[in-house]
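To the team - guanine complex, inputs and output below.
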Amino acid sequence: MGAQIIDGKAFAAKVRSKVGEHVTSLKADHGITPGLAVVLVGEDPASQVYVRSKGKMTTEVGMKSVEHKLDVATSEADLLALIDALNNDDSIHGILVQLPLPGHLDEDLVINAISPAKDVDGFHISNVGLLGTGQKSMVPCTPLGCLMMLREHHGSLSGLDAVVIGRSNIVGKPMAQLLLGDSCTVTIAHSRTKDLQDVVRRADIVVAAVGRPEMVPGDWIKKGASVIDVGINRIERDGKNKLVGDVDFASCAEVAGAITPVPGGVGPMTIACLLANTVTACCRANGLAEPEGLTA
Ligand code: GUN
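Output:
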């Protein structure tokens, strides 16, 4: 194995510790406690695990954590009324509505009802537009975590060839915008891309976010490239359940210069960046300097 393994778990712990320091000084110097509200509609088991984990880590860094668990049959009007109340609550600086929502609720409508300044997911159409035009915005957590790891590894990303595989609104598109913002030459590849392997072979940075287990083999990777694996796929192998990414870790690690493992790579960075975004939102709401190194 030639690649440096990028330890997302250790990196995320560092980010959370930095967030904790900012929370401590916000409390001591300004009497402000950043607050994050998480809204979960229904009882999807995976979502329940995420929400519990978010609540625990929010409290651990000294922030206020509020959870609203709503019945699966909650009406759109009731959900919008809750979001309106949270938008107007000065003790709440970040609002996250856990996705996916039950089918009778319009996700776009609900997300766009969140105040853009409190939209710590960065999914509101205003934040998407601000990011796309290079203005200050709230940045989606997973791509922000990927960017932080790439900056740490490379220093400057300027002029590098980057390929993002996947065009989702949550990861692929904002990731491409962030890499463009750091002056990469960016290609967004997807299921209809012709000669995907040739596109990937040119890249100094490969971000895989397609949700297809071990889709990218090592012989697609340019020697020394950085491989960021956003995939979290559950598969069965040799009669055992296993978590794998979107790249074939063993063969990619032979050629890459650096690679994130699954688990323990991008995953832990997502919640760390949610906490970072909440502190950023709190500082902006109070006209205070933003924490350095925790934003795009
Ligand atoms: N469901 C899975 N990932 C996410 C995320 O990053 N934000 C929200 N709100 N819901 C999710």
